[in-house]
Amino acid sequence: MDFYTNVCRSRDKILAIGYKNGKKQKLSVSYRPNHYIPSKKKSSPYKALDGRPLEVVNLNSMAGAKKFKEKYQKIDNFEVHGYDRYVYTYISDKFPGKIEFDPQQIKIATLDIECESENGFPEPSQAIEKVNAISIKPFGQPTVVFGLGEWETESDVVYVNCENEQELLMNFMKYWRQQWFDIITGWNVDAFDMTYLCNRFDRLFGEDTHKKLSPWGMSSTREFLQNGYQKTQIFGLSGVNVIDYMELYKRSTFHNQESYKLDYIAHYELGKQKLDYSEYGSLHTLYKNNYAKYLEYNVRDVVLVEELEDKLGFLDLTQAMAYDAKCNYIDTFGMVKYWETIIYNFLKDQGVQTPPQK
């Protein structure tokens, strides 16, 4: 593998996705991490932070390494050195030196969904309302739209007309699994679009159906406070990098905006706006009375996000930061893992192993 795009762990396996000679690779491998203990030898290629020599302890599995560390770090005056975030030690071991990556090979798409909203704004954690349109735009390519009615499209759109919502979602799933994008982005895509889709798939087709959106068939969920007060459910699809462009924009700019709605930011950055439908009063009325314009509204959102990236390059920056640190793209959003990994690799290059955890 020349470079990775996502590395995660499942029990005692490392799951890695990346590229070799321009072709995508998907690897499930056993990994044998090392830990280090004080050595009686006067010199060693491995040393502690204070310069004392260490000797390597080869463990035969990640589970074995964890048990070894947990067992011996409880013993007084027995030190176990070495980083225990094994996904990142794997990346460091398999990709020594500077990681040379080709951004042209990394498949990125921006996503936006629309739902019925007759009863108000649809709650993504419940996903009660019908999904009636999905636009997904591979960067540099035409937008692919899944809808529920006839539509004469423009040349830069591929339209898939579906009989009903179930067919729409299944066609979208088929396309998703054919493409296996490396990065999915969009405006509030993490907290709304992906969460809604995952919950809607499970509601209509059975629990855990959404796991088919992961190349490894695995997912996790967590909750966080969006905007500091709104409890929000987030799905993590193993092997898929979902990078919310709204959050990326907030993190990467150095001034506060009056609003972080896509309409406002697109106007501020690009001099463009979302499609205006004010003559219809509400998005639901637009859907009922002018479905063609409703789809155009959906398409405009994904196009605007790609145009923002074309101007700002924040996804390019995210990739560069991740490969410099030897971590996953999403790790650049937080400070702890990101800086821990940078420090770990810096020390490792000097032959120094991370100290025992207190």
UniProtKB/TrEMBL annotation:
One of its GO terms (molecular function) is DNA-directed DNA polymerase activity. Pfam families: DNA_pol_B_exo1. This is DNA-directed DNA polymerase family B exonuclease domain-containing protein. PANTHER family: DNA POLYMERASE CATALYTIC SUBUNIT (PTHR10322), DNA POLYMERASE DELTA CATALYTIC SUBUNIT (PTHR10322:SF23). It comes from marine metagenome. GO terms for biological process: DNA-templated DNA replication. InterPro entries: DNA-dir_DNA_pol_B_exonuc, DNA_pol_type-B, RNaseH-like_sf, RNaseH_sf. Residues 83-265 form the DNA-directed DNA polymerase family B exonuclease domain.
